[in-house]
Hints:
The complex is a heterodimer. The radius of gyration of chain A is 22 Å and the shape is flat. Chain A has one domain (about 30-245): Orthogonal Bundle (MetI-like fold), CATH 1.10.3720.10. Chain A is about 70% helix and about 0% strand. Chain A has helices at about 35-75, 80-95, 100-110, 120-145, 145-155, 160-175, 175-190, 205-215, 220-245. By secondary structure, chain B is mainly α. Chain B has 2 domains: about 1-50; about 55-269, MetI-like fold (Orthogonal Bundle). In chain B, about 80% of the residues lie in helices and about 0% in strands. Chain B has helices at about 1-10, 20-50, 55, 65-100, 105-120, 120-130, 140-165, 170-180, 185-215, 225-235, 240-269. The relative contact order of chain B is 0.12. Chains A and B meet through helix 2, helix 3, helix 4, helix 5 and helix 6 of A and helix 1, helix 2, helix 5, helix 6 and helix 9 of B.
Amino acid sequence: MNAARQIFKPCRLFPTGRAFCFLSGPAKGDNHMDISALLTQYGDKYLQALLTTWKLTVFSFSLAFLIGIAITVIRVCPIRPLQLFGDFYIQIFRNIPGAALLILLVYALPYLNIVLSYYTCVLIATSLIPSAFCSEYLMAGMNTIAPGQIEAARALGMSFSKIMKNIVIPQALRSSVLSLTNLLVATMLTTALASQVPMNPMDLTGLVSHINTRAVGGVTAFLISAVLYCTTAVIIGQIGTRIDRKVRILR
Amino acid sequence: MKQTQSSIRDVLYEAPGPKARKRIAVITVLSLLALAALAVAVIRRFAQTGQLDARYWSIFTRYTTWRFLGYGLTGTMTAALTAGVITFFAGLLLMMGRISSCKVLRVLCTVLIEFSRGVPTLLFIYFFLLVVPQFGIRLPALWKVALPVAISACGVVAEVLRSGVNAVPKGQTEAALSLGMQRRSAFFKIIFPQALRYVIPALISELVIVLKDTTFAYIVNYSDLMQNARVLISNYDALLSVYLVTAVIYILINYALNKISVAVARRTQ
């Protein structure tokens, strides 16, 4: 089983097995594909790649959000060991580089007899890392609530769950809209990790390296992907700003 | 940050009564047991698959192993610092363009900042690995890591610096101008030093992101920590232990940087 994922198997994560031959090849300006040629040959692949990136982003972000909420609950509950575990989790996944986590999942887990599909590995890596940041943002959102509000609510006789439901959670969510928007963009950028393992269909980054190692896509192939990423990011940012303007708490 | 954090944790509950205290004690013990069970399960899994064998871990008692990892770490640090310096100055230029009075420059810099923030580092790395050589430009491996990482971070740094400049009260510029200072010297002597002090914590956090991004160095065969870990693995045939230790080293470095950032933030407040 371990043989199936030998470390020096020439996979994109470890491109040792393959020489990037065009470095010395005759690839010069005149046989660059222009944008129309690229789009006719690879147009539907780009569309597929865009959808893959979007799908991965949405899945990862949803998972990250759920895990983030769970970890936040653990971090504020009055059980000390759980609090410490939550803090530990945050520090691990805030600070581990995405590539290192993915390599551990893909190459190290099989040594523990845990073999996950490449897609699962990518999904886990791209949701665990944002989940730590999600919890940090939610905590920061909670910290914007003045302690006096909670004391006042308690003085009025509200129970803990009521305080949480009516005072803490709504305000924490409302004041972390912008950071969660940024997190969604960051999650999308993290999904580029998918290009490091064999995936079918490929994501936007994987497609660019795929095109460039076969044909000479040049700057154009790169720019198409970049513009697709960038447009998505800008749209997400716009929507986030609009939501934030609507729900922001004026102090 | 830490103080407010502990305060929200404390203030969420009132002082527990005897019943609640008993319940908390019970759940504390249960959760301790659950966490211990988790740890035991992980260790048992390691033991069952033979990953606890001395031959996998004894290499870390050797000086040479650590020296080799140290070389890798030096490579990582060189790449991260190079990228960090480029990022800072590129971010500064972008920020100044973004707030300049020339409209063309402003729009151009806004577009560049959005581009830098919206495109993944990996795509930039592939650009420098696959596309740049097509124009006959051969860069050393260090630059093939440092440049793309810097490009993808400079947009964020520009925005961070801009938020710092915005945090300096407008009256200071007006006062400087009315005293007869040039716009440029007012910016560099009065506004920018203060702005920089506001944003140093955020800049350190950005350095963490830069350092994390340099792990992609294996794509361009630059010998950083990860790459040297790979060499160790092929020499000693100990994949899991070496990668685990490498990941822990990365986590510890970034953890320390984050701690420094928090400490600086507390001091400047």
